[in-house]
Amino acid sequence: MYLHLVIIATILVNCGVQVAHTFPVRDNSTTTATILLFEDINFRGIQVSYELGQSCVNIQGRANDRTSSVDTKGDCFLLYEHTNCRGRFHRANQTIDDLSSVNFNDSVSSLRRCSENDTQNRI
Description:
It contains no helices and 9 strands. By secondary structure, it is an all-beta fold. Helix content is 0%, strand content 46%. It has strands spanning 2-10, 18-26, 33-40, 44-52, 57-58, 69-71, 77-82, 86-92, 110-113. The chain has a single domain (2-113), classed as Gamma-B Crystallin, domain 1 (Sandwich). Strands 5-9-7-8 form a 4-stranded antiparallel β-sheet, with no helix packed on it. The chain has a 3-stranded antiparallel β-sheet with strand order 4-3-6, with no helix packed on it. The protein has a two-stranded antiparallel ribbon with strand order 1-2.
């Protein structure tokens, strides 16, 4: 099944320009969930949207190591500090308006959906 990785970059400038990109990604999962990453706290700045199954996805472009808030849309995701879902991680099972509150501001380089085996944070 092809999972569409949707990146929506919202650039807040005086004229309100919005730029959107879609990249196909191979994922064998049958169910997906959406997470929104924001460059600034309180869901401001550039926004990047990922629709994920269980596969690890590396954050591309400007959002890599520049995420300050996340909207999990009611699902659970693991946010990792390194690519390929390695290193410290934070289990985000709710919307977080300021990632510095969980010591993870500007640290997200990859992510994936939580599985039943993911029961704790490793920071």
